[in-house]
Amino acid sequence: MPSPKHAAKKERSCAVANCGKEASRAVSGRKVEKAGISVVTDPSKTAHLCKDHYREIKKKTKKDRMLDRLDW
Ligand SMILES: [Zn+2]
C-alpha cells in the first residue's frame, strides 16, 4: 500500500529526454519548447530541469528575445 508520505517526497529528474539528472529548476514547458529543446513533459505544464539544461534554455530564450527585438 503506497503511503501519502512517499508520494509527497517525489523525486524530480530533468525533463529533457536522455538527461535524467536531478532537477533543480522549474520553467514553463512553452519556454523550453521555444528554446528548441525536447522534453518528456507536456509543453503546457511546468518542466523541471537540471542546472545545466536550465542554463541552456535561459541562454537560448535570451537569444530569441534579442532576435525578436531585431525583428521589430
Ligand atoms: Zn538536464
Please give a structural write-up.
This protein has 3 helices and 2 strands. It is an alpha+beta fold. It has one domain (9-71). The longest helix is centred in the last third of the chain and has 21 residues, at 51-71. The radius of gyration is 15 Å and the shape is elongated. The protein starts with a helix and ends with a helix. The structure holds zinc ion (ZN). The site of zinc ion has 8 residues, from helix 3.
Q: Give the overall silhouette.
A: elongated
Largest sheet: 2 strands, antiparallel
Average pLDDT:
82
Distance between the termini: 58 Å
Give the helix proportion (percent range): 40-55%
Rg, rounded, reads 15 Å
Number of domains: 1
Sequence of secondary-structure elements:
HEHEH
Poorly predicted sequence stretches spanning 5 or more consecutive residues: none
Strand content bin: 5-15%
The helix tally amounts to 3
Number of strands: 2
Bound molecules: zinc ion
Task: Provide the structure class.
Answer: alpha+beta
**Strand ordering within the main sheet:** 1-2
Layout of secondary structure:
Blueprint: H1 4-8, E1 25-28, H2 29-34, E2 46-49, H3 51-71
Antiparallel strand pairs: 1-2
Zinc ion (ZN) binds at residues 14, 16, 19, 21, 49-50, 52-53.
Provide a brief overview of the structure.
With 72 residues, the chain is α+β, with helices and mostly antiparallel strands. Helices cover 44% and strands 11% of the residues. A two-stranded antiparallel sheet has the order 1-2.
